[in-house]
Specification:
This protein has 680 residues and is mainly β. The chain is built from no helices and 90 strands. The radius of gyration is 45 Å and the shape is rod-shaped.
Length: 680
């Protein structure tokens, strides 16, 4: 049947095709305000134009529709379940109206069904599949509404779309397509819907996730210079690719969950912003030496990994941020802006021969629990390490600008602090170098600033000129090893037998107050010099100042102010030693190993009622100046030698109980006595 001229099918009226398969040919326009009912299989509608003007095309059997379709009022096409409307007319523009496709069948169109107007509204309300949909306009009041599960075989997106997917419903897009730069795809609505990608969505523009609990799944979502904006909680289960500098913005208080495969940043910059949380169940990976991740306002990221060694790449912390889990198999560069903090919540480690470089002036790395350091933390710029525990497992802290550590410090193994010349590392908390562990100070002419107490139960070695400032160094059974000149202005406390080993030619200068030895042994060895403006004090009768090693060690100031005739503090000469300045207000015992020498360079007094007693084996007491003797010099060890300088008797007594060699000069300025035992 051919109808040559234009005609109207009014509202409430119907044209129904019946009988067998036939062809209705239009010579002009059919304006459809009523219903065109197509219940006969293989019916053909051809020629002219069917203009939908509030009407309905009801397809109850497979139908071939080659007439053009147009729309000028809200209309609908209903294709029954399992049936197809095969449309081969020209491009079908929705216009500034709503077109509803329903019925659970397929709309098989060879040319696009196009949302060509900002108000175009296409509602897929049960239609199973549409072959081609195009968004050419920038949707404002219009949208693509998915009221029931539906599939679009080919989706073109040259404009900006709004896709409203109902709760629990899914829109599947089967082809690869792109959201171009300057354009957007917005998911508004009540939320709970799913966008399923069978292929690849390339995002050069903006993907706006505005409906709560919407999900994007399957296929690939490629970030190619575009932006994901999540203003509501949303989920992405598709694979994310990063093919150009891109951004993910999650609004404050919202969560964007990602459960696809690990996201490789590549040789590009990925920016996370917005104040919300990026909850990724797989790693956000610095897989290229040039990978850049900017945390520019994002509150939290679940997983970040450094599998390679960064060169031009970096983790940039522009605003405070938290990383839940950090994996650090490679080498990182972390730039933390001034007064900003990066918090790493879970335990992590920097492996041996790998480094974590902290750049950015005045930023903080906060350890949520524990950082195990086998490799190196390099503080290239002024940095703060705070919170949790920094556990040294043979690791290195390298300091190139003034920096601070307020984290707790533990030593499962050794540690090294490498401080550049003129730079200061401030340690704000108490910490200990345990027995059988070593803390090494390297670099040159740097300062380790103690704000509390460093307890030395193991070994602390200064290999180069350095300064230890403020706080307290507590000698607790350990060894202070000084290989080059060292200045200590910290207080030094002595709680267990300890050793200070100063290499020959090196000087340890201490200006942190008197060092009380207590009822313990403090051993000096190595052949260097301990220069102390405040005295080294034998303040307990049980105290021992020992000189040990193969070369004479020098101590500048010693004060003996305790003991009595039967129980006196001891100068133990297991090796040769030198005391430059001796203050002797109480009692002492000098215990020599055989053939060893104690040299006292400057003049000193032995007061009335006090005693200096020689003990041990035959040794030599060498005076560099004058000993004024008002008390008793007790010489009970055979072959003791008293040499050098002058012993001035000032009412005192020289008590000789064994053969003694006395080559020092003797002088007298008050009534005195020399007592030599029988046969001696």
């Amino acid at each position: 049947l051919t109808i040559e001229q234009a005609f109207d099918l009014p509202t409430g009226k119907q044209m129904k095709i019946a009988g067998a398969a036939g062809t209705l040919t239009l010579g002009d326009n059919m304006t459809l305000a009523g219903t065109l009912n197509l219940p006969v299989a293989n019916t053909n509608i051809s020629g002219g134009t069917v203009t939908l003007n509030g009407g309905t095309v009801q397809v109850d059997a497979d139908t071939n529709f080659s007439s053009n379709l147009a729309q000028q009022a809200n209309s609908s096409i209903v294709v029954a379940d399992g049936k197809k409307l095969n449309y081969s007319g020209s491009e079908f523009n929705v216009g500034a109206q709503m077109l509803t496709l329903s019925g659970a069948g397929d709309f098989v169109n060879t040319n696009n069904l196009t949302l060509n107007d900002p108000a175009s509204y296409l509602k897929l309300n049960g239609i199973a599949k549409v072959s081609k949909v195009s968004v050419s306009a920038d949707s404002t009041t219009g949208k693509l509404e998915i009221a029931q599960d539906s599939i679009i075989e080919t989706f073109s997106h040259s404009g900006s779309s709004r896709i409203d997917i109902a709760d629990t419903k899914t829109l599947t897009l089967n082809n690869a397509f792109e959201i171009p730069a300057g354009k957007s795809m917005e998911l508004p609505g009540a939320g709970g819907g799913t966008l399923s990608l069978a292929d690849k969505l390339t995002l050069s523009g903006t993907l706006k996730l505005k409906a709560a609990d919407d999900t994007i799944k399957d296929g690939t979502l490629s970030l190619k210079g575009g932006t994901i904006e999540a203003s509501q909680d949303a989920s992405i289960a598709s694979t994310l690719l990063h093919e150009a500098n891109s951004e993910v913005n999650v609004s404050s208080g919202k969560v964007l969950s990602y459960s696809g495969t690990a996201l490789d940043i590549g040789a590009f910059a990925l920016t996370l912003s917005g104040g919300g949380k990026f909850a990724n169940s797989t790693d956000l990976k610095f897989n290229n030496p040039a990978s850049v991740l900017n945390l520019n306002g994002i509150n939290e990221v679940s997983k970040v990994s450094f599998p390679v060694s960064l060169q031009a790449g970096a983790l940039n912390i522009v605003q405070d941020a938290t990383i839940q889990s950090l994996t650090h198999a490679g080498e990182s560069r972390i730039n933390i802006s001034s007064a900003k903090t990066l918090t790493v919540t879970d335990d992590f480690n920097v492996p041996s021969n790998k480094s974590m470089v902290l750049n950015g002036a005045g930023g903080s790395l906060e350890i949520g629990n524990k950082l195990t350091l086998e490799g190196t933390i390099s503080m290239k710029e002024q940095s703060i390490l705070k919170g949790g525990t920094l556990a040294f497992d043979s690791g290195i802290v390298s300091v190139e600008k003034d920096s601070t550590i307020s984290s707790a410090i533990t030593h499962p193994a050794s540690s090294t602090f490498e401080i550049a010349s003129g730079k200061r590392l401030t340690m704000q908390t108490d910490f200990e170098v345990p027995a059988e562990r070593q803390m090494n100070l390297t670099g040159s002419n740097g300062v380790l600033d103690l704000q509390n107490t460093l307890t030395l139960s193991g070994t602390m070695e200064f290999a180069v000129p350095q300064t230890l400032d403020n706080g307290t160094l507590k000698l607790n059974g350990g060894t202070l090893s000084v290989k080059d000149d060292l200045t200590i202005s910290s207080a030094i406390a002595h709680s267990l037998d300890s050793t200070v080993d100063i290499s020959s030619g090196s000087t340890l200068i201490h200006s942190g107050g008197a060092l009380n030895i207590g009822a313990r042994t403090l051993t000096f060895s190595g052949g260097g010099t301990f220069t102390n403006a405040d005295k080294l004090v034998l303040n307990d009768a049980g105290g021992v100042l020992e000189f040990a090693g193969d070369t004479a060690t020098t101590v500048s100031h010693v004060n003996i102010n305790s003991g009595d005739t039967t129980n006196a503090p001891t100068l133990k000469m297991a090796s040769n030693g030198v005391i430059k300045n001796l203050t002797h207000t109480e009692f002492s015992e000098i215990n020599f190993a055989n053939g060893k020498t104690l040299t006292i360079e400057q003049a000193f007094d032995l007061p009335t009622g006090k005693q200096m007693k020689i003990a041990g084996a035959a040794g030599t007491l060498t005076l560099g100046d004058n000993m004024t003797l008002a008390g008793t010099l007790n010489l009970p060890v055979a072959n003791t030698n008293i040499s050098g300088g002058t012993v001035t008797l000032n009412g005192g007594t020289v008590q000789v109980d064994a053969d003694t060699n006395f080559s020092s000069n003797l002088a007298q300025q008050a009534n005195s006595s020399i007592v030599v035992a029988d046969g001696k």
